Every structure is written in structure tokens, then in C-alpha cells.
């Protein structure tokens, strides 16, 4: 197994940097997603489409020239973007939880669906309570493109749990028809689609009487349930409220990141465990005056028949929320062979809000490290499933989302001000690179 240190060599080649808009800078704590980016096919080459905090969409060619911009009158932040058919599907975090479909050539909106009609209106007009289009994935069903979109809404209630989620997974046809939907009283965090199936990862299940499984696999054609699985099925003891952090489908079955026991799992198509890998399990670390037991969540996974890549997040202590300790595998990408053997590990430098994938490669954007608050770690890293890191580029602000396809990388940078420094780093802009 090879291990790569966190040094960024700046060996991704910049091709364009495009200002996006004005936005309030992020602060020391993670503010959540408010931007998205996708690479789509345009008439004269690839387009990088950025979704902005004000709900706008901006399409930029590989030369950095703006091709089109759509500015809606009222919209939530665009937090999810995927190519779909001849357009791009955009999902918002906003009062309506809107899913929008835009023409790739012009940016014109073709249809919209307000998920709040299914998950409900926000209990409060604050970010955490707004309906949230969490994730989307596409595949074909009987030769027709189909998009699968997961939406959730959070609220605080009384019994049986002070926390409650309403969520829905949609199957959309290109004309905006809802082919099927599945609701759940749980919090979806990721969806993936391939080989005629759809996998939905549920992160929080606060009411086990209503929903008690971290993974549900459905038929892409009609939503028929094919598999339910939970980390509790493979670990000793109850999993708690957090279950699964991400899922990726392979021909052999789903590969997932478990928030319940900080491991990676590969399942067979019937739910049997093919392999299990310790990623950021609790370890004891010395701190002033004693020790803390700390862990880190594995937040992202991308898997193919060639193997898998998993990315871990921040260090947390088992007791309380603050710690001076650092887990040795926080902010780490781990490459895994198809049989579950670790192939390589590499630091990604900071918290990755999301990853961009194109099959054999993954783009990892490093957002802030809220404990150390080190601006020198802000970067975008390109990683190959088989070999590990293949290129990187530092950014002044925090890199919050990225996409990669055919040797191109697109990333959105957002400004940040750390509370104990008072300096604004970076700006709201779109970067284009050649890998």
C-alpha cells in the first residue's frame, strides 16, 4: 500500500477562472452546500455549468467564455447538478425544494417540480429547515434517460423523536413526468443509479418504527424494492441514528460508507457482505491533561468493477464536540482493490463537501478544516481509482464542489473568513483545469 503526504504540487493545469457573483463569505464552521457544478456536452465542446447561491445557473466553455446565464426571479441555492438527456437537472435548497430542468444549449428552463408538495413546507425560514434536493443520479430505463432525485426536509417535533425528516425519491423522465416516487420518514444523503437499479443511502433514521435501514435498493423502472440493508446487520450492537454516508453501485452490488461504525462495506446484490474495511474507527489520542477517543466519518465513496475510493471527513470526539486530537485518517482518500484490500491512501487536506466522478477518476475539493483553519490546505485534487492522486491545484478560498470528465476538472471556489484570523480568502469563482 502506498501513502501520499498532503503536499499540493499544483500540477493541474489552469485553463480559465471565471468570476461568478457576490456572496457572503463562509465562516470557520461549515455552512453547508450552496453551490454545485457539472460538466455537460455542449454544441461546440464541453460546458461547465455552475449553480449559484442565488439560484442562478452559469454555463462556461473550455475557453472561459460565458455561453449563457439563467437568473430566476426567486429561487433557492442550487446544490445539486447532473447532466440529463439534452439538458442539465438542477436541485435547490429553498422553500419550495425545486427540481429544475434546463436546456444545455440556451439555459432556458423546460420544466420544474416543487418537492415541498411532497415533503412539506419549511418549519422555519432558516437554512437547515429548508427542503433540500440532496442528490441526483441518471441512467437509462428501456433506452430512455431517467433521473433519480432525493429530497429531504427536517423539522423538530415532540414524540416519538424530537427530530423528524420527511423525504422522497423521484424518478423523472426527460419531459418532467414523475414515473414513480417513494417517500420515507428518514434523511436520504445520496442516490446512485446503474444496471437497472437505484441505491438510496439514508443517513439519519430518528424514528426506527417508521424507517430503520441505511440502504434501500430499488428497481429503476418502477421503484420496486429489491434490498434493504443497515450497518446493524453487520456490526455488533445498535447503529444509533447515523447510518450510511454515501453509496455507489457496481455490477457486483453496492459499496457504501458507513457512519454507524466508520467502515466501508461492499455488498453483493442480495445484501451479503463481500468485504468490510476499517476506515476511521475510534482511536485514543493524547491531549493536554489526558486523552480523547476520536473518530471520523467516511463521507464519500465512488466504486466501479476496478475498485473503490472512499474519503473521510472531520475528527470528532466520542465525548463532547471539541477536541485537540486529530484522527490519523481524517481528511483521507483511501483506494481499495475489488477484493477490499487497501491499495493506497492520500491526504486531501481538508473537509470535502462532495466529490466529482467520471468512472476512473475522482475530483476532490478541499473545503475548510474547521478545527485547524489552515488556508494553505484549500485545493482541488484529481485522484485515479487505481493509482491515487494524479494532480492538484491550490485555491485561495475554499473549494466546495467539483466535477471531472474526459481529462477536465471544474471546481467552484467560495470566499472564507476564519473567525480567529479576520482575513477574507478567495472569491466566488469557477475554475477550469486540464488534468
Automatic annotation (TrEMBL):
Coiled coil: none
InterPro entries noted in UniProt: PQQ_rpt_dom, Quinoprotein_ADH-like_sf
Region ranges (Disordered): 230-249
Domain Pyrrolo-quinoline quinone repeat as annotated: residue spans: 167-282
Pfam families: PQQ_2
Protein name from the UniProt record: Transcriptional regulator
Source species of the chain: Haloglomus irregulare
Amino acid at each position: 500500500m502506498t501513502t501520499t503526504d498532503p503536499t499540493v504540487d499544483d500540477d493541474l493545469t489552469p485553463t480559465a477562472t471565471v468570476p461568478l457573483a457576490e456572496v457572503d463569505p463562509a465562516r470557520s464552521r461549515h455552512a453547508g452546500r450552496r453551490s454545485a457544478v457539472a460538466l455537460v456536452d455542449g454544441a461546440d465542446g464541453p460546458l461547465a455549468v455552475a449553480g449559484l447561491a442565488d439560484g442562478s445557473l452559469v454555463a462556461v466553455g473550455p475557453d472561459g467564455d460565458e455561453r449563457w446565464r439563467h437568473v430566476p426571479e426567486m429561487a433557492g441555492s442550487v446544490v445539486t447538478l447532473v447532466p440529463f438527456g439534452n439538458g442539465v437537472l438542477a436541485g435547490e435548497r429553498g422553500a419550495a425544494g425545486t427540481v429544475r430542468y434546463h436546456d444545455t444549449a440556451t439555459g432556458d428552463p423546460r420544466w420544474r417540480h416543487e418537492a415541498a408538495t411532497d415533503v412539506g413546507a419549511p418549519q422555519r425560514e432558516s437554512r437547515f429547515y429548508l427542503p433540500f434536493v440532496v442528490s441526483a443520479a441518471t441512467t437509462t430505463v428501456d433506452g430512455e434517460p431517467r433521473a433519480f432525485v432525493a429530497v429531504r426536509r427536517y423539522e423538530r417535533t415532540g414524540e416519538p423523536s424530537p427530530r423528524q425528516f420527511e423525504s422522497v425519491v423521484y424518478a423523472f423522465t426527460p419531459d418532467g413526468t414523475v414515473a414513480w416516487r417513494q417517500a420515507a420518514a428518514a434523511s436520504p444523503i445520496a442516490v446512485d443509479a446503474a444496471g437497472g437499479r437505484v441505491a438510496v443511502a439514508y443517513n439519519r433514521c430518528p424514528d426506527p418504527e417508521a424507517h430503520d435501514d441505511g440502504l434501500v435498493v430499488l428497481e429503476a423502472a418502477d421503484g420496486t424494492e429489491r434490498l434493504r440493508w443497515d450497518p446493524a446487520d453487520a456490526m455488533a450492537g445498535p447503529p444509533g441514528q447515523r447510518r450510511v454516508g454515501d453509496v455507489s453501485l457496481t455490477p457486483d452490488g453496492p459499496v457504501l460508507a458507513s457512519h454507524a461504525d466508520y467502515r466501508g462495506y461492499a455488498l453483493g446484490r442480495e445484501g451479503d457482505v463481500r468485504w468490510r474495511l476499517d476506515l476511521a474507527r475510534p482511536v485514543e489520542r493524547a491531549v493536554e491533561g489526558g486523552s480523547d477517543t476520536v473518530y471520523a466519518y467516511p463521507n464519500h465513496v465512488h466504486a466501479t468493477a476496478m475498485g473503490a475510493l472512499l474519503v473521510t471527513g472531520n475528527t470528532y470526539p466520542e465525548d463532547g464536540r471539541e477536541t485537540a486530537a486529530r484522527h490519523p485518517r481524517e481528511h483521507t482518500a483511501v483506494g481499495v482493490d475489488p477484493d477490499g484490500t487497501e491499495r493506497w491512501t492520500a491526504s486531501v487536506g481538508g473537509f470535502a463537501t462532495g466529490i466529482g466522478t467520471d468512472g476512473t477518476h475522482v475530483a476532490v475539493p478541499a473545503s475548510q478544516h474547521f478545527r485547524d483553519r489552515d488556508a494553505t490546505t484549500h485545493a482541488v485534487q484529481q485522484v485515479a481509482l487505481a493509482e491515487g492522486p494524479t494532480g492538484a491545484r491550490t485555491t485561495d478560498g475554499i473549494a466546495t464542489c467539483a466535477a471531472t470528465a474526459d481529462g477536465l476538472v471544474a471546481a467552484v471556489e467560495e470566499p472564507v473568513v476564519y473567525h480567529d484570523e479576520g482575513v477574507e480568502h478567495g472569491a466566488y469563482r469557477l475554475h477550469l483545469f486540464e488534468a
